[in-house]
Design goal:
Structural class: mainly alpha
Number of strands: 0
Largest sheet: none
Order of helices and strands: HH
Distance between the termini: 64 Å
Helix content: over 70%
Number of domains: 1
Amino acid sequence: MPIFDGLLTRGRVEETRAQEEKAASDLEVSRQSARLEISQALALVAQSRAVLEATEAAVRQATDALAIVERGYRLGARTYLEVQDAQLALSVASTNRARARRDHSVARARLDQAQGLITGLDGPETNVATRRVTP
């Protein structure tokens, strides 16, 4: 059994240590990337929530405005064109609210995905963890 191996063992040890350092560095990069993705997803959820709340308020205002204009029309103080304008404003506000709801749902799904709570979106076998961070 040879005692001297031409520094082969020493080279293998150094190579293994270098691989370990690279793996540790890769792990840290992955952690930072995950933190950034979660942070961005949280910001998107907060932004979409604010837009959703604003569109909810716009729908309430448009509903109130329509009621006022319709009352004025019945009393002869408003024209039918004003009623149609108020109906259109309510329709636009409702459409914007629906879009905001969709955007908020997408933002929450992205947050879940960034947190690793959604592992696949292919069907009923989708794995969803029970732990969730609520923004």
